Structure to design on (229 residues):
């Protein structure tokens, strides 16, 4: 059960769009439509942004969207805002109630 | 409103057992179809799923930690607990308790508690 692969960092200017990839295997990301994404600000607990690949919990802005193709899931932040500067983690169901997280991506708003 | 709060010793010595408890308020652990779990984050690093437990006591552990992890639930106190044995410096982390759906969506998190492992 290896960590999912995410880019260490991505950046964009306010108003732009950024996309974070999350690559796993057919045993996790590719095998189930159960990928979730989390936002974490420094010193805070993670916050659920996306679940079941592309669903947003109540209260999450529609600027955040998720998708999946094969063994790679993606999170897109449209209309980047200063408060979006944070760490982002993907997580996939891996069967038998097991979960695997990505290594995290730092988003910088230029 | 559902809330989770971790509690436990602030420091653990190498080779000893780390013990944490999570107290859930706002919902009964046994009335939910959700699982309850532990996730940790070493300083400056990413998140790592430790394990999940259902109110019935069924447990599911990260294979990499399975030999050292024990989770339990006390429905009368609306709490669940984590024990991690034979700790080493690499187990130093912020430990979060959380509510987890059957397929992994973690929608409620505790604030986290930093547990250093040091002599």
């Amino acid at each position: 059960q290896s960590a999912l692969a995410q880019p260490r960092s991505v950046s964009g200017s306010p108003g732009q769009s950024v996309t974070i990839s999350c690559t796993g295997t057919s045993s996790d990301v590719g095998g189930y439509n159960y990928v979730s994404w989390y936002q974490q600000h420094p010193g805070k607990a993670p916050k659920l942004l996306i679940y079941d690949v592309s669903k947003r919990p109540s209260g999450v802005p529609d600027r955040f969207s998720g998708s999946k193709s094969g063994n790679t899931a993606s999170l897109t932040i449209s209309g980047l805002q200063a408060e979006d500067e944070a760490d982002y983690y993907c997580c996939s169901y891996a069967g038998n109630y097991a979960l695997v997280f990505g290594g995290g991506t730092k988003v910088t708003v230029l | 409103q559902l809330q989770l709060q971790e509690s436990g010793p602030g420091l653990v010595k190498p080779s000893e057992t780390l013990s944490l408890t999570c107290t859930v308020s706002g919902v009964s652990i046994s009335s939910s179809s959700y699982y309850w779990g532990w996730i940790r984050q070493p300083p400056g690093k990413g998140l790592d799923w430790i394990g999940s437990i259902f109110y019935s006591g069924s447990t599911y552990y990260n294979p990499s930690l399975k030999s050292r992890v024990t989770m339990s639930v006390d429905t009368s106190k609306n709490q669940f607990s984590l024990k991690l044995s034979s700790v080493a410096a690499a187990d130093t982390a912020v430990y979060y308790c959380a509510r987890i759906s059957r397929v992994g969506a973690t929608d409620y998190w505790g604030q986290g508690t930093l547990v250093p492992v040091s002599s």
Q: What stands out?
A: Chain B has a mean pLDDT of 95. The radius of gyration of chain B is 13 Å. Strands of chain B lie at 3-7, 18-25, 35-41, 48-53, 59-61, 69-74, 79-84, 93-100, 106-109, 113-115. The CA atoms of residues 13 and 119 of chain B lie 5 Å apart.
